[in-house]
Amino acid sequence: DTPSGPRNLEASKTCKSITLKWEAPESNGGLEILRYNVRLTKGDADEHMQSVGASQKEVKIDYPEIEPDTAYKVYLTAQNGKGYGQEEMVEVTTKKFCLPSRPAITNKELEVETSFMLTWQAPSDDGGDSNLKYKVEWRKKPVTEDTVAKEEDNIGDLSLKIEGLEGPAEYEFKVFAKNSEGRGEPDTRTFIVKQAPKKNTTDHPDPITPKVGARTQSGLGAGAIAGIVIAVILIVLITIDLFCCFFNSC
To answer: Is residue 6 classed exposed, middle or buried when 0-12, 13-18 and 19+ CB atoms within 10 A define those classes?
Structure first.
């Protein structure tokens, strides 16, 4: 006899491919299964046919004519020496968009300052959705389980100003492209962050405020100067008083 139908058909899809998985039939018809035959239809027309070996339980259908956001039927049969067995079918609609391909970091320098401009170019394939956004992640190396990555998401430009890095150190950067379908694979680059320049504190020394009683550059303390001023005032007052008494004009 011919085999029974393959079991537990499952189909996953992107915008331009369909992947079919299955399990072997309950009955091989008493003969060894030689191959599995896949048939793809759109509407009433056959679109694609292919065969895979008996040991395979998965096949990816990605021929160029598969269209985004399109309904297909995928048929699968097992074949032995007697012929084709029972045909099983699963319906699947391809996605409207695919994930974008990876962008490309365009910085030429290997060493950077603690603040620098990270730049990249758009992916070669936007997955059918031109409304791309970007996500940047960076972390200090070596990367361990406890390393926490910093990130900036939903970037509309092809650059991002990175600030607050610590140097000298190595940092790993990842740039992802995103569209309506999700996030694609990242481009990854490691940069060496230079040590931040030290601040020169001798250029502008703090002014020195003399304390009460401290000596000035002339050698007199502030208390001595105050005493001299008071003495002068007393002399002036005594002189005026003597003048008034002598001339009886006070």
So the answer is: buried
What are the tens digits of pLDDT across the range 15-56?
A: 999 999 999 999 999 999 999 999 999 998 999 999 999 999
Distance CA 20, CA 201 (A): 70
The one-character DSSP state at 219 is S
- Asked whether the beta carbons of 10 and 91 are under 8 A apart, the reply is no
- The helix or strand, by DSSP H or E, that contains position 152, with its residue range, turns out to be strand 150-155
Residue of 158, 132, 162 lying closest to 149 (CA atoms): 162
How far is the CA of 222 from the CAs of 41, 209, 249, in angstroms? 104, 12, 38
Question: Distance between CA atoms of 38 and 53, rounded to whole angstroms?
Answer: 11
Contact between residue 221 and residue 197 where contact means Cβ atoms under 8 Å apart: no
Read off the pLDDT of residues 209-246 as tens digits, 9 standing for 90 and up: 555 444 444 455 666 677 777 877 878 777 766 666 66
Task: Tell me the C-alpha distance between 216 and 211, whole Å.
Answer: 10
Taking 3-state DSSP, the helix, strand and coil percentages for the chain, each rounded to the nearest 5, stand at 10, 40, 50
Q: How far apart are CA 176 and CA 122, in angstroms?
A: 10
Q: Are 66 and 30 in contact (CB under 8 A)?
A: no
pLDDT of 202 > 80? The answer is no
* C-alpha dihedral sign at 136, 137, 139, 142: negative
